[in-house]
Design goal:
The structure is a single chain. The chain is an alpha+beta fold. It contains five helices and six strands; from the N terminus they run βββαββαβααα. The two termini are 29 Å apart.
Length: 179
């Protein structure tokens, strides 16, 4: 159920569970800033998850990290998915930017405990471009599933979701630290 490396966070591996995952670039370098890198990361993310029958539900890609929410098929596939995603995207970045290694720092995963916890994490993910100053309005940031979520739920229902689950504003994740 738990897998932990010597220098890595413990990873909970649950089948048919919802996951909130964050991947961060080593030393928070802005290696994801270019459109083509963000697009490649998104396509590779979709492919790596689909290859293991995981369902990508929500995502956001910023210049130095990403967040996603997905539903697992087999929890034991978690490390395989993110190892492949990070290897392929690191190669892509290195081919274009000739950056120092390592590219990726790590990934952190979390399984929401209940509906409230799920929506706090979802709102946190969707609000990330505003939180980090990439956009003043969520709909203005193109590297996020916000537009799809808005189209699916409608403005009124999505606004209610943000109001009813406002805990995202005070959510402090360990992976958000700059150290």
């Amino acid at each position: 159920m738990f897998k932990k490396g010597r220098h890595a966070p413990a990873h909970l591996q649950l089948d048919r569970a919802q996951y909130f995952v964050t991947g961060a670039i080593y030393r928070r370098r802005p290696l994801l800033r270019d459109h083509d890198v963000k697009q490649y990361l998104l396509e590779t993310m979709r492919d790596c998850l689909a290859e293991k029958a995981w369902q990508l539900e929500h995502w956001v890609i910023l210049d130095n990290h990403y967040h996603l929410m997905a539903t697992s098929a087999l929890g034991s596939d978690l490390p395989k998915i993110f190892r492949k995603l990070h290897v392929l995207s690191a190669r892509y970045i290195l081919d274009r930017q000739h950056s120092e290694l390592p590219i990726w720092w790590n990934y952190w995963d979390y399984c929401p405990r209940d509906e409230r916890d799920y929506y706090v994490r979802l709102n946190y993910l969707l609000n990330n471009p505003v939180k980090h100053g990439y956009a003043s309005r969520l709909e203005d940031y193109p590297y996020s599933s916000f537009g799809q979520t808005l189209a699916s739920l409608g403005r009124e229902r999505l606004a209610r979701q943000f109001t009813e689950h406002a805990g995202y504003r005070s959510l402090n994740l360990p992976e958000d630290r700059d150290d």
